[in-house]
UniProtKB/TrEMBL annotation:
Protein known as: Nucleotide-binding universal stress UspA family protein
Source organism superkingdom: Bacteria
Sequence similarity: Belongs to the universal stress protein A family.
Sequence ranges assigned to domain UspA in this UniProt record: 21-89, 103-237
Organism: Pseudonocardia hierapolitana
InterPro entries registered for this protein in UniProt: Rossmann-like_a/b/a_fold, Universal_stress_UspA, UspA
Gene3D superfamilies to which the protein is assigned, alphabetical: HUPs
Amino acid sequence: MIDSFGPAHAAAESVLRDALGRARSVASDLAVSTRLVLGSARWALLREAEGAQLLVVGSHGRSGLRGLLAGSTSIHVAAHASCPVVVVRPANNTSVAASAAARVVVGVDLASTCTRAIGFAFQAARQRGIPLTALHAWTPDPPADLEAISGSATMAEALARRGTEKGLARWRDEYTDVPVVTELARGEPAQALVTASRGAALVVVGSRGRGHILATVLGSVSQTVLHHADCPIAIVRHDCATAAEPPTGVYHGRTS
């Protein structure tokens, strides 16, 4: 996306040619097309997302407060797109995502809003031929009375595991060829997912689709993971019609 013609237009065309060459070198069997659009990158991408199965964007990887407050194209698109969005951060030298230990990680929050994210993660693991890790972060029950007597941590963990397995049951039956490991982490979900991203090929998180300014500035689990994960992150809104079915065939792009 560019803001003017002239030298900028020629430079943008060069970028597209390079991108097309890279895409074809990675997946020569896919039909890939390019499109040069005049205007704001974020709004052009949101328009293209309408009716799409998946939108992939890059990220400069800014993780400080300035980056959070200023926002970025990737964060804006992930918050507002009508389809699942994958954000690819700069390569991390410590990542082993290309090794035999690679896996897809999906955050499970025991709410119906992550159902599509789980389905997306199963499909992504099948496409890559790698295992899936379903991660749920839990904390002990709060004090039950004035004497601060809390529920048994063991019982809380057991309930968390039961709820996680229940959320996975439908997808296990549908994707019997995908090896699945359930992991429970005691603590905050965002930190657990960031830790699990080390060595992962992809982290998938669900989103309730809140796009207002407070959700963007104050942050959420998905935004924290976007800023700090060591691998690509898929943001799957619960209202995405295509969220449980990532594309498996030809990408039908549009050209100018």
